[in-house]
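Note on ligand handling. Small-molecule inputs were canonicalized before submission; formal charges were left as drawn, and no protonation-state enumeration was performed. Where a ligand contained multiple stereocentres, the stereochemistry in the source SMILES was retained. For S-adenosylmethionine, this procedure yielded the string shown in the input block below.
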Amino acid sequence: MLEKVLEYSAARAYYDRFGEMQDRQGFYEDPALNELIAHASFHDAQSVFEFGCGTGKFADWILKNHLPSSARYLGCDISPVMVGLAKKRLEAYGERAKVILSDGTVRFPLPDHSVDHIVSSYVLDILSEEDIQRFLSESRRVVSFRGKICLASLTRGVTIPSRIVSSLWMIIFRMHPSIVGGCRPIHIESYIDKKQWQLEHQRVLTPFGVSSEVLILISMC
Ligand SMILES: C[S@@+](CC[C@H](N)C(=O)[O-])C[C@H]1O[C@@H](n2cnc3c(N)ncnc32)[C@H](O)[C@@H]1O
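Structure output:
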């Protein structure tokens, strides 16, 4: 079933209002992001692109603790408030870290096969199905051969309590998507063409009854 998602302008307005409150979502996001870091081999990356970087929390985390000191980071976001917060947070990294404002369309401002790792956490679950497909084809275009895309998104529950949570979430999303920030549980693996991507790691984590799917894919093209 095709879900009606937030228009770009509504997503921008929501995340402009939400701003720093995004960092309080760590209670369900951080376990998934730790899992991503544990399997993404950031220590091998020389360039990282993040789609929907929010406040720059994840970028700060990997620049400080996981990326080589020579590695560069580029983040983009649709929300001017988020871009402002991320730029301020990443100021200390100078030329190594850049953040740009996007118009919401899923087009990456990068040449073909120019980046080692692409990251996107809790953003694909806001996008339409067409934009998720565009995200994957843009990722295939810009990532280097054997480069990685590292994803975390809300997903359907896998236990009885988390199934109840995700069903209620879906009901609220269908009635008023902006109440849940335009996010809904998705199954990223179902969008993946296994001829183009090697599935390196997949796990569903469910802290506090909220399920997240973590996926690491390696480009075969
Ligand atoms: C739920 S937040 C997640 C932020 C961050 N990745 C994190 O995990 O903390 C979603 C982010 O995606 C951004 N976003 C939503 N739609 C977008 C789009 N079409 N293009 C770029 N960014 C988008 C929002 O502005 C917001 O910062």
